[in-house]
Amino acid sequence: MRKLKRSARLVEMTQYLLSRPHTLIPLTTFAERYGSAKSSISEDLGIIKEVFEEEGLGELHTLAGAAGGVKYTPLVRQSDALQFVREFCRLLEQPERVLPGGYLYMSDLLGRPALLQQIGKMFATAFAGRELDVVMTVETKGIPLAYATASWLNVPVVIVRRDSRVTEGSAVSINYVSGSSKRIQTMSLARRALREQSNVLIIDDFMRAGGTIRGMMDLLQEFHANVQGVGVLVESADADEHLVDDYISLARLTGVDPRTREIRVSPGSYFKEADEQ
Predict the structure, then answer these.
(1) Where is the Bacterial purine repressor N-terminal domain (predicted)?
(2) Rounded CA separation 35/29 (Å)
(3) What is the spatial distance between Cα 121 and Cα 150, in angstroms, rounded to a whole number?
(4) 73-109: string of b/e by CB count within 10 Å (b at 16+)?
(5) SS3 for 266?
(6) Model's pTM, two decimal places?
(7) Which partner for 146 in 137, 195, 229, 255 could form a disulfide, CB atoms 3.0-4.6 Å apart?
(8) What CA–CA distance (Å, rounded) separates 62 from 68?
(9) Where are the beta strands (DSSP E) in 130-225?
(10) Do residues 118 and 87 lie in contact, with contact meaning Cβ atoms separated by under 8 Å?
C-alpha cells in the first residue's frame, strides 16, 4: 500500500488501466493499492473516464455491485483512424513496393512497433463488442499484426502453421485451395493450441481471393470453434471472386501497373462498417 498525492495516483491508475484492457478491475484493487476510500477512487475514475473520452483513448465502463468494477475498452476515433489509414496508403503507394504478381512489399512497415500498435488498436476497436477467446493468424507476416491486436483485446494468439512441428505435439492438418494460385496447400494447428468451441478472431496481412482465410475457417471447424470476425490489413480489388464474405479491411489495393509502377490504395471497408453502425 502506497500513499500518493492525487496527481500521482491519477497517473498510476491511468497506466494501470491502459496496460490491462478488457479486464474487469474491482474498485477494491485500487482502494487497497493506494490506501484510499472507494469514494475517492470513484472520483478519480470519473476524471480518467472524461479524459479518455475527450482524447479518443477509449472508454471506461463501470459495473456496479459486489462483483463489479471498472473495465477499459481501447477505441480509436473515426477521424483519427481515417487520418492514419490515409498516411498508411501513401506509404503503400511508393513505387519501389511493387512485387511480381501485383503484391506489395510490406515487411518493413510490419516491423514498425508504433504502426503495428495503431493497426492493432483499430482492429480491437472494430471487434470490441464481440466475445473473443483468441486471435488467430497464419505464419508468417500476419504474426506481428495478430500480437498487436491481441495486446489491445487482452487475449492469447494462436498461430496456424504451414506444416506440423514435432515440438508442438499432435496437430490437425487440412488441405485448402489457395485463392490466387489455385494450388492445393496444407495448414495445421496443434491440438493443444486451441480449446474446442473457442471464439476466434482471424487476422491476416493481405487478402486477394481469401483462400488462406477460408482455410483457417475450415480448420477451425475441426475444433468446433466459432469465427467471430475477420480482419485484413490490405485487401486486393482484382480478385474474380472472394471466398470470404464477412470481413473488415483497413486498406484496399485498387490497382498496380507493373510498367509504370503506379500503385493505388484507398481506405478499406473498416470505414464503411463504422458509418453503418
Answers:
(1) 5-74
(2) 10
(3) 9
(4) bbbbeeeebeebbeebbebbbeeebbeeebbbebeeb
(5) strand
(6) 0.91
(7) 137
(8) 7
(9) 134-138, 157-160, 171-177, 184-190, 199-207
(10) no
Cα(151)–Cα(144) distance, integer angstroms: 11
Q: What is the spatial distance between Cα 150 and Cα 102, in angstroms, rounded to a whole number?
A: 29
Give the tens place of pLDDT for each residue, 175-214: 988 766 678 989 999 999 999 999 999 999 999 889 999 9
What is the rounded (10 degree) CA torsion for 118, 123, 126, 127? -140
Q: What does the alpha-carbon distance between residue 125 and residue 209 come to, in Å, rounded to a whole number?
A: 25
Q: Answer whether 187's CB lies under 8 Å from 174's CB.
A: yes
Segments of the chain with pLDDT less than 70: 1-2, 66-67, 102, 179-181, 273-277
Joined grid coordinates for residue 4: 500518493
Q: From CA 43, how far away is CA 204, in angstroms rounded? A: 41
* CA-based torsion, 245, 248, 254, 258: positive or negative: negative
Q: Which of 194, 207, 112 is nearest to 160 (CA)?
A: 194
Residue 201, strand partner residues? 135, 229
